[in-house]
Structure formats: C-alpha cells, structure tokens
Amino acid sequence: METVIFASEAQKSLLEVLNQLTFSRLVILTDSNTQLHCLPLIQAILPSDALFITVPAGEINKNLETCSSIWSRMTEAALDRKALMVNLGGGVIGDMGGFCASIYKRGIRFINMPTTLLSQVDASVGGKLGVDFQGLKNHLGVFNEPETVLIAPEFLKTLPIQELRSGYAEILKHGLIQDAKYFTSLQSENWENQDWESLIKHSVQIKKNVVEQDPKEQGLRKILNFGHTIGHAFESHFLDSANHLLHGEAIALGMICEGYLSIKKTGLSQSEFQEMTQKLLDIYGKVNFNETDLDPILDLCLQDKKNEGSTLMFSLLEKIGSCTFNIPVNRDEIREAILFYQKL
C-alpha cells in the first residue's frame, strides 16, 4: 500500500520526500490549470534540470493521444528507468501520469500530488491508473502504487467552487457505503465551509481500509463504485457536449439512481433513501436530460468493468453505512431508476 503523507506545506514536504529518494532526473507533469495555479507553490525546490511536461486540462484529454505526447517528451529527453515522475494535478493527471510512468520503459517510479478535493479523497489512493478509450471511462489501465501520495490541503484554495463540490460527492459516498455517522455529519447547507483537512483524512482512511483488504477489486473494493455504474455512463455520454458533467455531479445523480435500485434489491429503507436523496439534491440540484439520451446511457452501463459477461453487476446499499456488491440488475431496472430520477 502506498505511503500517504498529509502535508501542511506542499513545498517543504515534497523536498523531504525527494531528499530521501535517489533518481537520475525529475519529470513534473501538470495540466494547463495546475501549471498556472499549483506549480508556483512547489517550484522553488525543484532541481534545475527537471523536465516539465504540461498537457491540456480536462477529462476529454485523458486518452492515448495525450499519453503518446507525454512519452514522446520523455523519450526526447532521454529519461532512463531511474527517472522519477511527479504528477501534480487532479484525478486526470494522477490517473494518466501514473499510467504513463508505469508503461514507460516498463515502469518508472512516480509520486502523486493531488490538487483537487476529488483526487485527494479518491483518485490518489488505491493504485488504479488509466485512461479513457473510445468514449469509455478508464477503459485502459493498470494497478500500480505510487512511491508516495502527498496530500496538501493548501491546493484546495486554487479550486473553483464547482470543483470543490465535485470532490464532495466522493466524501458523501464514503459515508453512505461505510460510515452512517460520518454521512449524517456532512453538511448540505454551507457545505463549502467545513474542516476539509479532517474530512479528507477520514475519507482517505475509509478508502484505504477497503483497498488494503482487496487491492485488485476482486470483491469488497467494488463497494467504492457505488453510484459509479450509472454515474460514469452519464459522465461519458455528456463528455463531448456543452452541458458536460463534472465527475462528482454525475456520481451524485448515479447515487440517487442506484439508491432507488437498492430499495428494490438490497433492502434500503424508503426513509433512508429519502434522507440521502434530499441531501444530494440540496447540494447538486438536478441534471436535466432528454428521453433520447436514455438508450445511449443504458448502452454505456453495459461497458462497466464490474459486469460479468452480459450481466450488469451493481454495488448497492443495504442501509446508510453498509454496501454490498455483485448484485445483478437488468437494463429495464436501470431504465426505471433513471426515469425515477428524471421525474424528481
């Protein structure tokens, strides 16, 4: 399991980590946003011969074409297998940078410095790396642990409010699947004014506990996907459109739909479902979509990595704070759940 360091000062902590490691050369991967807003917070301690690679920001660029451009820069710079990569960015940079590091010359070491709330509580822990392919989210990827994950809440000050809200969805999910008391304590009014550092620590601990029991997602780890089968389908469907959804917005919608399925399949009570739905709607509002979007979204659900053959396997709630997995759900049932959401 990777080492997670909570850093009160990003620059100081990174320097301490780099001083403990030997490497031939440092490569820093940023996107166009983190190059501007986050790189200046660590720039002063970076070696003079560091290689800087910047890619365009956004999920839409998390693909093999972008990886190819990263590998080309690394190759042109003649980086050897002792090079060390620092991924400074959100989930896209962590996933794609780790994937590029794992493939280059059969693998170089890398450090993840997650800069968004979403990546700090979710993408940075658990060693899942990958890119999107043919419109399917994280379709190509590997499991590989970073050398270290450096979580510095100071980066959150660089985020627009929508990005903070997007990350909050994963925090809410952690409460729903493993910790009812935690879920109840999470605010829906003034949600942006919370002690983020303690929430991040608690969420990372929940995720770490699950991942340590099931590193390769053979069983228990699947509960971390609650809300994600339908949520990812919506996120992928609207990726290229004007009203594209941030990950957390799509997952909030997915959790309501999959909560509806949980009533039918795994015994979630109506009252608990109403409690979670109200909280999610208060924070995220409703996503509007047309009837014509439904079939393409259902088709995308069939591509989910948890499926076994043509059987759709869901992670569903038994109650708030308890989630089970490998629950078969058919296409008509998913359609019913999405139509329920549409009528809210």
UniProtKB/TrEMBL annotation:
Catalytic activity: 7-phospho-2-dehydro-3-deoxy-D-arabino-heptonate = 3-dehydroquinate + phosphate
All residue ranges annotated as the 3-dehydroquinate synthase C-terminal domain in the record: 167-307
Major localisation: cytoplasm
A Gene Ontology term for the protein's cellular component: cytoplasm
Gene3D superfamilies referenced in this protein's UniProt entry, alphabetically: 3.40.50.1970, Dehydroquinate synthase-like - alpha domain (1.20.1090.10)
Pathway info: Metabolic intermediate biosynthesis; chorismate biosynthesis; chorismate from D-erythrose 4-phosphate and phosphoenolpyruvate: step 2/7
GO molecular function annotations of the record: 3-dehydroquinate synthase activity; metal ion binding; nucleotide binding
Key word Zinc present: yes
Entry keywords, A to Z: Amino-acid biosynthesis, Aromatic amino acid biosynthesis, Cobalt, Cytoplasm, Lyase, Metal-binding, NAD, Nucleotide-binding, Zinc
Highest rank taxon of the organism: Bacteria
Alphabetized InterPro entries for the sequence: Dehydroquinate_synthase, DHQ_synth_AroB, DHQ_synth_fam, DHQS/DOIS_N, DHQS_C
Cofactor(s) needed: Co(2+); Zn(2+); NAD(+)
Domain 3-dehydroquinate synthase N-terminal: 53-165
A matching Pfam family: DHQ_synthase
EC number(s) recorded for this UniProt protein: 4.2.3.4
GO biological-process terms attached to the record: amino acid biosynthetic process; aromatic amino acid family biosynthetic process; chorismate biosynthetic process
Location(s) in or outside the cell: Cytoplasm
Function text: Catalyzes the conversion of 3-deoxy-D-arabino-heptulosonate 7-phosphate (DAHP) to dehydroquinate (DHQ).
Annotated NCBIfam families: aroB
Family listed: Belongs to the sugar phosphate cyclases superfamily. Dehydroquinate synthase family.
Protein name: 3-dehydroquinate synthase
Source organism of this protein record: Algoriphagus boseongensis
